[in-house]
Amino acid sequence: SSDDIEDVSLFDADDDVSRRSKKSKIRHPVASFFHLFFRVSAIVVYLLCELLTSSFIACMVTIILLLSCDFWAVKNVTGRLMVGLRWWNQVDDDGRSHWVFEARKVSAQGIKTSSEAESRIFWLGLITCPMIWVIFAFSALFSFKVKWLAVVVMGVVLQGANLYGYIRCKVGSRKNLTSMATNYLGKQFLRQTVAKEDQTAS
Length: 202
Prior knowledge:
Layout: E1 2-5, H1 17-23, H2 29-52, H3 56-83, E2 85-91, E3 97-103, H4 116-142, H5 146-171, H6 177-201
Parallel strand pairs: 1-3
Antiparallel strand pairs: 2-3
Helix pairs in contact: 2-3, 2-4, 3-5, 4-5
Protein name: Golgi apparatus membrane protein TVP23 homolog
Organism: Spizaetus tyrannus
Subcellular location: Membrane
């Protein structure tokens, strides 16, 4: 499969103070609400379902419905509105599968720029919730709750797929994520070393 991507800087700092203040506001409150609502609701239902009802089937169906709604909303709506990113798969006439990762171009007038507040909400929800489902997976595995393992795996897969897709949109599909992580850690280590040397010299 081949990847198509537009590499666009989405979060450049604005020189104009008034435009910067506009960027700090939430421009899509409904999208921001539903970006967190479905995924947080699925986690809350998972944690409280044994207290609320004794029916495992009802809990499982409710959680999977919430996860499915979250997957659809984040992939098709909130990613495009809140951070200007989208990803999807298409099959061409030859039957080949193409993964497409797009980033919205910022206009010269600053129209349709992403709000910094919305960007924080988007990435915080996108990264935190899959990590919570991974913790649930280990908890279910080590506590031998095999029946819950399938539900938790669904949470990891559906939310992990969106996380992976949007990371590919943000950093570029042709860039090696491992090398980027290595470069980031190397820069952090270099900064700490230089800071320690400056403290020693002073």
